[in-house]
Amino acid sequence: MTRKHIHGGDIYRHPNVLDFSSNCNPYGMPEGVKKAAAAAIKLAEHYPDVSCTRLRMALSKAEQVPVEQILCGNGAADLIFALALAKKPKKALLLAPTFAEYQQALETVDCEIHYAYLREEHDFVPGEEILYQITEDLDMMFFCNPNNPTGVLASRDYVKKIVEKCKAMNVFLVLDECFLDFVEQGEAHTMKPFLKEYSNLFLVKAFTKKYAMPGLRLGYGFCSDTKMLEKIKGMMQPWNVSVIAQEAGIAALKEEAYVKETFEKIREQRAFLWEHLEKLSLKLYPSRANYIFFQGPRGLQEQCLKQGIYIRDCSNYEGLGTGFYRIAVRTREENQALLEIFEKLTGKR
Q: Considering all CA atoms of the chain, what is the largest pairwise distance in Å, rounded to the nearest integer?
């Protein structure tokens, strides 16, 4: 029996709800992206560009990474699973809690998984002890920054220590920066400038959250080891990125005004949510992403669903038990609706 895949944004099992479980841009897909995707329908009678040439060139310009170091996929998950197939690690290290798809990808190649458990009493902030768990018997490590579901952001200096230790131990590091775009001054934290220095580093990103287009499935990654990129590409099915997704991605990279405007609103709403959540009987953890991770009463997800609100129950994450939740930052009206339900359920105002 295949293990049930639990994730946020499952509107098919939870229809007609206000969805706080998925961490996408709450202001929706940009109109320019919608138009580009719709217009690409006429191209769908042809095969997509197997090399995603125009998209990779656009990404190279936007991200300031050489085009030959860029690989596109059917969402970030496509890249993560292809990485596992390409490297076939025998032993890997994961933080706990962290994004569940890392574990799922590693399990497809029967990899032995070891966990570096983040401690609740330290607010799930990774410390120097993680470095001692990076040993020469490891083949691969995944590190998410900011982490999902906690939203904790590690400094660039700390991440460099991780990369350095991995390089010294001949460990391939997969660094997930999918949520870094939402962090204020996120460019000060990215490891993009160090790709050439660390050929053992693969950096994962996606269009999914930033442009609110999870249904189109479009992710990408950077690595200075071009032979490794070719090997990963060989693990993917041909034409894995549709014509529609490629055209939507090219259009999305032009939406600079949309990104600037909506990210400012998200930061404002995050501060608004945080201020009001602090007044409730909830334990908040120091998230820097576009979602807030907290500890609350058991059964809160079910109670919220009865009120038409869908939040993410995080009890299925390795390293977490019941009572841990994650909520996305949404619009002011939606955030107020959530707060009213929380106040009602907790009896606080």
A: 58
Residue 84's pLDDT band (boundaries 50, 70, 90)?
A: very high
Retrieve residue 81's tokens.
Answer: 């699973």
**Is the CB of residue 86 less than 8 Å from the CB of residue 234?**
yes
Sign of the alpha-carbon torsion through 215, 308, 14, 288 = positive
Between helices 256-277 and 332-346, what is the axis angle to 10°?
A: 20
Rounded CA-CA distance 294/287 in Å is 9
Is pLDDT at 314 greater than 80 in this prediction? Answer: yes
pLDDT digits (tens, 9 = 90+) for 128-169: 999 999 999 999 999 999 999 999 999 999 999 999 999 999
> Which residue in the block uniquely carries the two structure tokens 């050439």?
196
**Tens-digit pLDDT profile for residues 199-234:** 999 999 999 999 999 999 999 999 999 999 999 999
- For residue 283 the two structure tokens come to 């334990």
Is the pLDDT at 13 greater than 90? The verdict is no
Instruction: Tell me which residue of 100, 107, 192, 103 sits closest to 147, measured CA to CA.
Output: 100
How high is the pLDDT of residue 14? 78
Q: Where would I find the beta strands (DSSP E) of the chain?
A: 18-19, 70-73, 91-96, 112-117, 140-144, 172-176, 201-206, 219-222, 283-284, 291-295, 309-310, 312-313, 324-328
By the 8 A CB rule, do 263 and 182 touch?
A: yes
Distance CA 349, CA 343 (A): 6
The answer for residues whose C-beta is within 8 angstroms of residue 327's C-beta and 6 or more apart is 20, 21, 273, 291, 292, 294, 311, 312, 338
Question: What 3 state SS string does 94-142 have?
Answer: EEECCCHHHHHHHHCCCCEEEEEECCHHHCCCCCCHHHHCCCCCCCEEE
- 345: its two tokens: 């359920």
